[in-house]
Design brief:
10 helices; disordered N terminus; alpha/beta; elongated; 5-stranded parallel beta sheet
Length: 290
């Protein structure tokens, strides 16, 4: 059934019931899912009515919000299994709302339902944290199947921040801050820092970092790791503060925690740069940055 969303009339209960039965007849009796709670964020009242009644008929408990502020309030006070999110809301943008919820640790499945059908819009919505993206007009039976598919997936658990002294990495929002100051990193730099912070207080050897941040078969420059660590240090260093990444010569790297020092007869710690004096690290980094 193709839903032409821009011209949906306000339907009677009888019409909505007939619309809802179409999916039930195609898929058999609706599965009762323990009354999973869904939120429909849609400012088109007619479409919101159709979706709510159809989803209730499928066995879900459904709330509706027509504005971004109301949706945010409802998400703050309820634990929804899935959120159907329109992007063009009268008091805000659904993509911004999605990003804010993910940054706050909201783990509900999010299905964007919108008239924005450009390729970059779809990419932006998924990168903002949506689990799926459906454009209007849409086929209700496919939409309902996507809802069921999302609800079969386990919800992501909120991963804790990685912290060492004044350095904080949020793996969900992929953000990094030092002493409260946000630091923009490349994908490779973020991966290296995440690996080091996940073992804060321990020496991580070069081989492990290379294998995890590149792969075991990487055949680029022999000093690629040093170049990226040097760039990462430059971004994280702050005047008057110790470097958050230490070099353990001949072994690897260490992100110290308060009071921790590397141990071992061969562990010689250096706070200096990793590149030899004659090596132009900035030039190499530009040539070999991902």
């Amino acid at each position: 059934m193709q839903v032409t969303w821009a011209a949906i009339p306000v339907l009677s209960d009888r019409s909505v019931a007939a619309f809802s039965r179409t999916s039930a007849e195609l898929h058999g009796a609706p599965v009762r899912l323990g009354r999973m709670r869904l939120l429909v964020v849609e400012d088109d009242r007619a479409l919101a009515t159709v979706l709510r009644r159809a989803l209730v008929d499928e066995g879900y408990a459904v709330d509706v919000a027509g504005r971004a502020t109301l949706a945010d309030e409802m998400v703050s006070t309820n634990d929804y299994s899935l959120i159907v999110l329109d992007l063009g809301l009268p008091d805000g943008d659904g993509q911004d709302l999605c990003e804010m919820w993910r940054a706050r640790g909201v783990t509900s499945h999010i299905l964007m339902l919108t008239a924005r059908d450009a390729r970059l819009d779809r990419i932006g919505g998924l990168d903002a944290g949506a689990d799926d993206y459906v454009t209007k007009p849409f086929d209700y039976d496919e939409f309902a199947a996507r809802v069921r598919a999302l609800l079969r997936r386990p919800r992501a658990e909120r991963r804790p921040n990685l912290v060492a002294r004044d350095l904080v990495l949020d793996p969900v929002t992929r953000s990094v801050a030092r002493a409260g100051v946000q630091v923009a990193l490349t994908t490779r730099e973020f991966t290296l820092l995440r690996l080091l912070l996940s073992k804060a207080g321990q020496v991580v050897d070069r081989g492990e970092l290379m294998e995890q941040a590149w792969d075991a078969h990487y055949e680029g420059m022999s000093n690629t790791l040093e170049v990226h660590i040097a760039a990462l240090r430059r971004k994280l260093d702050q005047p008057g503060r110790a470097s958050p990444i230490e070099t353990v010569r001949g072994v690897g790297y260490l992100v110290p925690v308060s009071g921790d020092q590397p141990t071992g007869a061969d562990a010689s710690v250096s706070h200096a740069g990793d590149c030899q004096p004659a090596f132009d690290g900035d030039t190499a980094l530009r040539n070999h940055r991902e």
